[in-house]
Amino acid sequence: MASANSHANAQQKGQCIHCSVDSCQHHADNGLCSLPDIQVAPKKSCCTGKADESQCNSYKCRW
Asked: pTM here?
């Protein structure tokens, strides 16, 4: 996770995390992630160079 200092810097720059994963408990109705920062990680056994080779490691199932 990002440090408190880097989080403060991101907020000062007006950065936000857009998310369309409705099943995640951090997904807000406004289409944003409610977390101040997320952890992005590579998928296992995936090195294709395409956008789908990474995932949000902060995901938690809503249900």
From this structure: 0.64
Q: How far is CA 47 from CA 10, 39, 53, 56, 59, in A?
A: 29, 18, 6, 16, 21
The Cα 9–Cα 21 span in angstroms is 26
Q: Per-residue pLDDT tens for 42-53?
A: 887 777 777 778
Asked if residues 24 and 13 have their Cβ atoms less than 8 Å apart, the reply is no
User: What letter does residue 58 receive in the DSSP assignment?
Assistant: T
